[in-house]
Amino acid sequence: MAQWKPYFLKMWFTCGVLFGLVAMLLSMFLLTLLVVNTVRRQPVEQQVLTPVMPGVNLPASQVSYYLLTLLVCGIIHEMGHAIAAIREQVRVNGFGLFLLILYPGAYVDLSTEHLQVVSPLRQLRIYCAGVWHNFIIVIVAWAVLLGLPLMLLPFYSAGSGVAITEVSQNSAVSGPRGLSIGEPITSISGCRVTSIADWNACIMASMKEESMGHCLAVDKVKELDTSPKNLSEAKKMIDCCNSTSSTHLCFKYHIKTSPSNKYACLPARMTTDRPMCRYQSDCYIPKLDMVCVYPALDNETKLLQVFHGRKPPLLFLGHPLDLHYSVILSNYVPKSSIIPLNLPYVVETFSKYLISLSGALVILNVVPCYALDGQWICHGFIELSLRTVIPDKDIRGLIYSVIILYGTGLLMINVILAMWMLFS
Asked: Which intervals hold domain Peptidase M50 (predicted)?
């Protein structure tokens, strides 16, 4: 690989040198700004460094993505060093993988003797290759994330509903009559669902608004009403069905001749199949005495119709958040049953992890800190830029030591602050 298109690889790793300089300055600025803002007690909207702790801020279901991302980023990072080293005639003694407690990583062992005799610019091509490749990972993952809807278009439909990828066991919507994995959800009680964002918005709207009503003729209400005849009006207000039926629900309505609410125990399925209404005027039909019947529920409980697939809508009775947390959804609905349901989620999640963790590795590795790439990158930049200006090697070494001490202290302070922010 190091012998493939030598001129292109030379320009490729030279671009990595330019990126390494810019990234080092930007990383030092960001980490310094974070410390200054913390000391001045100014709010920091987003932490630059956040420790990833399984079981603390990393769900158990995401651990596999996290470890795989670390492994991929580590291998490509070290491959950059190795390819650049061979291209610059620096011997690679070996390379491999390691496991630090639970965190996988990769390493490459370069010949120190060969490194010391090549020019600072050639050293920088080797030192900056790792973070340069991490940055390329971020760009590629970001492009995949943006182009995902177009790439999945032949196999998935988007914008017409959301697909159910998981249903919580023993939840209100599980079971043979509940929601099934793979079904598309298109609407919640008249609120159109075309994406997960719509789903969240519909759930929030249902919490703030009253449950939708349904249009029924007054004669039909009286015909279907099964409330016990001996119930007083006061008891009807509490539960006109007297908690005796699992298929019926108490509805309230009012008629023109009486300003007070009337109550009727009606079959829930048959009633909710009628046209929806929010106001009495929505049910107006000439020469028919129509009313809008509303579920008689407390402020927290809602009756929601979840339209899913070709089945009759699911009637959900409870708090809307219980419905929200009972399912996991995807914006992509498979066009065929043989197409993997979770593939878009896997690609999207893996891409986000690549962007986040590979970007974090760039910020960390370019800091001029002991035992990181930034230590050698800083030394290479000093030798390249100051060797002719400051011929005295000891003075250049002093400048290098000061920068390394500052970078090491800066990174340690940021790690301590990040841990404190996580656990406080």
From this structure: 65-393
For residue 294, the tally of other CB atoms under 10 A from its CB is 19
- Asked if residue 367 lies in contact with residue 24, where contact means CB atoms within 8 angstroms, the answer is yes
Burial annotation 245-256 (CB, 10 A radius, 16+ → b, else e):
eeebbbbbbeee
Tell me whether residue 78 is one of the annotated catalytic residues.
Answer: yes
User: Which of 99-127 are b and which e, b meaning 16 or more Cβ less than 10 Å from the residue's Cβ?
Assistant: eeeeebbbebebeeebbeebebebbbbbb
Task: Render each residue's pLDDT in the chain as its tens digit; 424 residues.
Answer: 888 888 999 999 999 999 999 999 999 998 998 888 877 776 555 555 677 766 666 777 788 898 899 889 999 999 999 999 999 999 999 988 887 766 677 889 999 899 989 999 999 999 999 999 999 999 999 999 999 989 998 999 888 899 999 999 888 888 888 898 989 999 999 899 999 999 999 999 999 888 889 999 999 988 998 887 776 666 666 678 877 678 889 898 888 777 788 888 999 999 999 999 988 888 988 888 899 999 988 878 899 999 987 778 999 999 999 999 999 999 999 988 899 998 998 999 999 999 999 999 999 899 999 988 999 999 999 999 998 899 999 999 999 999 999 999 999 998 888 888 777 7
The first and second tokens of residue 304, run together, are 């929601």
Q: Where exactly are the structural domains of the chain? A: 6-148+347-423, 156-210+305-338, 212-296
CATH fold of 156-210+305-338: Pdz3 Domain (2.30.42)
Beta carbons within 8 Å of 261's beta carbon, 6+ residues apart: 237, 252, 253, 254
C-beta separation of 293 from 276 below 8 A: no
Residues 6+ apart with CB under 8 A from 227: 236, 240, 241, 242, 250, 263, 264, 265
Give which of 93, 68, 310, 50 is closest to 186, Cα–Cα: 310
Contact 207, 297 (CB under 8 A): no
